[in-house]
Amino acid sequence: MGAVLTGLFLLTEMLPSDLADVQAGADVERAEQLRHIYGLDQPIGVRLWDWWSAVFSGDLGHSLIDGSPVWPRVADRLINTAAIAMPAILIAAVATVALALVLSWNRGRPVATRTSVGLAACAGLPEAVLTVALVALLSVRLGWVPSVSLLAPGQQPWDRVEILLLPVLSLAIPAIAWSTRMLKGSSDDIVSLDVVVSARLRGMPAHRVILRHVLPRMRGPLAQVFAVMAAGILGGSVIVESLLAYPGIGQLLSGAVAARDTPMVQGAGLVLVVVSMSLYTAADLIVDKGRMT
């Protein structure tokens, strides 16, 4: 994880300009003055050391824009993102398992072929295009939800549940498509096992076969796919939140990159990396535990 976080810091330092350039414009002398004020003229090794030292002490620094502490703002935005990411993960997880089993159970039949084609189309659809299409359908045409997911100052996401539908669907639909395609191989192998085939031939009801013989054997693949899916949904929040003006950590990260507010970029990026790596580690532990039993 240390290498990943160091890479994150170095990537932010490689942006084509910094805050001094953004604020000073063409005034080179003013840019140098601002760079000195913000400490951006120090060697990159010194800044990396200072950043790691601050991280280990629990301090993510202060915004270069307004001087506010990074961590409280990131934490508030992370809660907002969790309000859309967790429902999206839950919906995607249930749909992924159901669709993967439908494809494996009906392998070679027209329903499996049509489902595979639909999933391939959804998986190849950019999140920005899907989000715009959902806005056009659910907001403009049907008028069910607002076209943007704005929150008033001090308002919590659960105070306005209607604004969560668009971002949740925008995150869940692509995740369902590519997660199902990832899980299908393992699902095919399990459904083809002798114990499953024998149970089906004996006339055991499908739901009993799935609950008794299929799902217990899918624990490892499910953990891995769900970890990747959850991390992908967190990454996709950057695009979806920016398009829908939803005040989550993705929008915070996008705005900080545009403003070249490097402490905010690094703080938000660090939190996303830590959450993603934690998901992958938990999935590996589940897989290892399954191999030992």
Question: What does the model show?
Answer:
The chain is mostly helical and 293 residues long. It has two domains: 2-56, no CATH class; 71-292, MetI-like fold, CATH 1.10.3720. Helices cover 75% and strands 0% of the residues. The protein has 13 helices and no strands. Helix 8 packs antiparallel against helix 11. Belongs to the binding-protein-dependent transport system permease family. The chain crosses the membrane at residues 78-105, 117-140, 160-178, 222-244, 264-287. One of its GO terms (biological process) is transmembrane transport.
Low-confidence stretches: none
- The fourth-level CATH homologous superfamily of the largest domain is MetI-like
Following the backbone from N to C, one meets helices and strands in this order, namely: HHHHHHHHHHHHH
- What would you call the shape? elongated
Class of the largest domain in CATH? Answer: Mainly Alpha
Task: Please state the second-level CATH architecture of the largest domain.
Answer: Orthogonal Bundle
Enter the CATH topology name of the largest domain.
MetI-like fold
What is the terminal separation in angstroms? 28 Å
Helical content (DSSP H or I, runs of 4+): over 70%
Roughly what fraction of the amino acids lie in strands? Answer: under 5%
Radius of gyration (Å): 23 Å
